[in-house]
Queue: 2 jobs
Job 1
Amino acid sequence: MAATLASSGMAVSGGGSIKTDVSTMPRARRGLGTRSRILIDQARWLVLNAAYMMDTVGNRAAKKEIAMIKVAAPNMACQVIDWAIQVHGAGGVSDDFPLAAAYAGARTLRFADGPDEVHREQIGKLELARYRI
Ligand SMILES: Cc1cc2nc3c(=O)[nH]c(=O)nc-3n(C[C@H](O)[C@H](O)[C@H](O)COP(=O)(O)OP(=O)(O)OC[C@H]3O[C@@H](n4cnc5c(N)ncnc54)[C@H](O)[C@@H]3O)c2cc1C
């Protein structure tokens, strides 16, 4: 996220705060920062909901929510890192930035804990079971 914003014309200070110079920021790049924030926070709320379910009703009852974050979080990370790579141009896939390595790590999670398809299938079955279909 910071990499996307930094390359979008936003200065990221050491403490993590971001000073925005909107006037110098290309509109398309600004849009990627905005879309990244939306995707990241969507995934965060899904994770928070899964954690809440695990704490309150247990892991077994929360298996759909757990499967949902196993799909949503790495897909979100892949998309956000991909945008960061794009705004960095060829530099984004060079060793000058950690983005390519970060992408490989996030991409690996889409099958390391079971392929997306398997989690999606489980979510579908659990969802249909709610309606006795
Ligand atoms: C870094 C890393 C850590 C890992 N850690 C563990 C671990 O701790 N414990 C462990 O048990 N395994 C672990 N694995 C293995 C991982 O679970 C498997 O790689 C994964 O389940 C996919 O199996 P596969 O590689 O044999 O590919 P395949 O089973 O050949 O799957 C290839 C592709 O086929 C599709 N596919 C497969 N099955 C289905 C299905 N049922 N429905 C629809 N499409 C499907 C998917 O697109 C999938 O990506 C790890 C893998 C990596 C890379």
Job 2
Amino acid sequence: MNNSNIINNKSFQDNDELSKNSGSESDQDPKVSQLNIEENKKLNIEILPENTDKEDLSFKVIIIGDSSVGKSSLANKAIKNKFESSYSATIGFDFFSFFVKINNKILKLQIWDTCGQEIYQSLITNFYRNCSLGIMVYAINNRDSYEHLDLWLKEIKRESNPDAKIFLIGNKCDLEKERVVTYEEANIYSEDMEFSKFFEASAKDGINAKEIFIEAARLLYEDYTEYKSEISSSVSEKTNPELKITLNKNEHKSTCC
Ligand SMILES: Nc1nc2c(ncn2[C@@H]2O[C@H](COP(=O)(O)OP(=O)(O)O)[C@@H](O)[C@H]2O)c(=O)[nH]1
Ligand SMILES: [Mg+2]
């Protein structure tokens, strides 16, 4: 049974009746993760194969930012462990699924990747609708992509749920010699704008690519469990599937390449 619920005005699906056995396998990335490894260990997080056909919870995640900053590359690296050095622009949208098991719940992140050429026009409303988390990407060697973040932020805040969590990602951190955006200035911007997370990444070298999505899953799972515990004493979820609550939880943790 799929119960459609709303958390922070964002939709998610809870398939409690599904079996917890997924036939999963651990995905070992040789690169050192710099993100909350200890927290993730406590939560017992396991990445599941891309072809997993079950989920208990499903969340919509969107990736936005200028063309060529590496949005598709980050998703491809994280999910398929592939990196293409030749550029092929995303036409319209691409979709990826990222499955993670957290404390025996299978989470599916439905990842919507866009071409990024629409910065001066609104993307179709469908793209932002029911988004639980936005990943805003710039490239550390592309000043324009950093300067455009305000426009992307305005867009996501206008079109999406105002409480949606937003990550800021400075991609291409392998190109240190070409760097034109410092870690420090982006970190200050991230704090000023109250992003949930900021970190630098490299789709090319596999630095923090997978961790972006693990962190997304972890935060969304935490919101979900908070939501469940808030309603468990007084409200039956089955009779109130559209219950809306507001959670005020801002975290500001940062890591750098
Ligand atoms: N050096 C380097 N190049 C990257 C990285 N990520 C993406 N690229 C390259 O940047 C170009 C654009 O990447 P793509 O993922 O298509 O960008 P998108 O338009 O934002 O989806 C491609 O040529 C990629 O190979 C990275 O982390 N490091
Ligand atoms: Mg793309």
